[in-house]
Amino acid sequence: MSGQQLKIVFMGSADFSLPILIALQKRFNVVAVVTEIDKPAGRNKEIVAPPTKHLAQSLNIPVFQPISLRKDIKLIEKIKTLAPDLIVVAAYGKILPESVLNLPTHGCLNVHPSLLPKYRGASPIQSALLAGERVSGVSIILMDAGMDTGDIVAQETLEVDALIDYGGLAERLAQLAAEMLVKIIPRYVAGDVKLKTQSDEAASYCQKIEKADGKINWQNPAGQIFNQWRAYAGWPGVYAYFKEKKIDFVSVALAENKNAGRVPGEVFAEGKKYFVACGSGALELKRVKLEGKKEVDCQSFVNGYRDFVGTVLK
């Protein structure tokens, strides 16, 4: 079967999905895209469509947005009539019922941005950054009814730069996944791939990220807080409280050799650089955003709030 004869239904919703969909569309016959519903977003709660919807429409691929895939019998029947050879899932955001898992001739392949069985669950990229991992990767698995428990079809590693944040790592992993899928799908469909069973004993798990996860505990070492910033860059971000108002730290740097006996959370200056003392070391503040105000560089913020230096952030 040639690439263009291979019919694929793609399921994905996030930015992570985009390079994967582009690669699949160039190489195979993507007959439909299933994504999440349009949702309110931002301060004004404007209704925003998933990025995969915009991309699919620009590629003239039919788009479906079920509220519940499990309950949408009409959509399941529609997918059945499309007779897909394969369903590919990447950051879709919903669990696939068995009625969908059993539809394609060759099953459903899921792209998971970790080296399974490590970091099963909803936040593998953030979890790897939080842990300070220097190696991550992508696993492509044949989906079963469990959470990221399916047999491994392909797996490749990626070195993690010590300064890279969530956005940068997600972009690199998505590109790696796209390249892997284009190579492995023809071999997998031809039966030329030996699947590898995951070890449940070696598995680790990660949870869905909550807004409260971004709150900084200044008692922690600076390296740990910096990893928190790397993991949550974009959303939910990392923050503390100044004068009972939330202050987001948009851009920071690690300063492990600073902080000689200061109280954790104390803001101090060295020349025109500004730091917050941590349990050990310090965090250099480059750009901040106070609740209700615009994002500014730290010097501009200090110019407007002279008492910022010396305060102890909560």
TrEMBL record:
Where are the bilayer-spanning segments? Answer: none
Catalytic activity as recorded in UniProt: L-methionyl-tRNA(fMet) + (6R)-10-formyltetrahydrofolate = N-formyl-L-methionyl-tRNA(fMet) + (6S)-5,6,7,8-tetrahydrofolate + H(+)
Could you tell me which SUPFAM superfamilies the record lists for this protein? Answer: FMT C-terminal domain-like, Formyltransferase
Annotated Gene Ontology cellular component terms: cytosol
Q: Determine if Acetylation is one of this entry's keywords.
A: no
- Enzymatic class: transferase
CDD domains per the UniProt record, alphabetical: FMT_core_Met-tRNA-FMT_N (cd08646), Met_tRNA_FMT_C (cd08704)
Q: Which residues form the signal peptide?
A: none
Instruction: List, alphabetically, the Pfam families matched.
Output: Formyl_trans_C (PF02911), Formyl_trans_N (PF00551)
**What Enzyme Commission number(s) apply to this enzyme?**
2.1.2.9
Keyword Signal part of the UniProt annotation: no
PANTHER family this protein is in?
Answer: METHIONYL-TRNA FORMYLTRANSFERASE, METHIONYL-TRNA FORMYLTRANSFERASE, MITOCHONDRIAL
Supply the name of the protein. Answer: Methionyl-tRNA formyltransferase
Organism, by scientific name, is: Candidatus Falkowbacteria bacterium RIFOXYC2_FULL_48_21
The gene that this protein is the product of is: fmt
